[in-house]
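DM from R.C. (forwarded with permission)

"hey, sorry to bug you on a friday — could you get me a structure for this? deadline for the figure draft is monday and I only need the backbone to look sensible"
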Amino acid sequence: MTTNPQTGPCRVCKNEAELIFTKQILGKHEAAYFKCAACGHVQTEEPYWLEEAYRNRDYRLDVGMADRCVWSAQTMVALARRVGIGPEEPCLDWGAGTGLFVRLCRDYGMNFFYFDPYPQNIFARGFEADTAGGPEWTCISAFEVAEHLADPLKDFGKLFRLSPRYILFSTLLYGGQSGDWWYFTDNGQHIAFYTRRSLELIGEQYGYRLASNGRDLHLFSKERVRDRILDTSRKRRQKEAGRYRRKYGSRIESDFEQAANGRPLAS
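My reply, with the result:
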């Protein structure tokens, strides 16, 4: 619990964050939300309820999960085509969940692998990656992860320390929305809400630049990438992903042959 309910240190830039509202979550916890005057980042108080929030998650309500995996995978492949990520360059999905995103990216021809220590890997079995001793990743994707981070600077650091060329991730940007904004969900799982400036500061800490479509899609990169590339990748995802697959071919058949012959997949 917060010792001073009116202020607290910003977990991105360490400047003072001030209380902007409180909201009941999980039907019983009155959580305080703070906004940083310096970088605009919004965060909950120390999220003591997280274990309970994930233990009680009802996946039956998330009927859009598969659809989001489809568009995010197509967007990833479209971006790969735009920035020149080849079909043999190893990429990693962080917080991969069921593995559907990984499977779809492989279906389009990318060399994607799975990392998530918690959920059950259903669609990408055999492609689990060891982040302690894995390859040099060209790109790490992290869709629907950033808003769940209790310590964004430290938690993003786990990805940056793998030194990928790119980190593609999603999260809705905060722009002064009121406490009834749907992203301030009452299930207790969204605890960090970013502005472009707060994301830029995170990237700068680790020597990365930020590109953003200004809404929900963002890229940390070692070299400059124009914002419009993200917007184009999102808007033309189906066409661009299809071109990537036609050029390089899908991995469906080769993955099946490896699995059927008992050869290791994650290599």
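R.C.: lifesaver. The helical segments are 50-55, 65-83, 100-107, 152-160, 196-205, 227-235, 237-248, 252-260.
me: no worries. The domain at 7-55 is CATH 2.20.25 (N-terminal domain of TfIIb).
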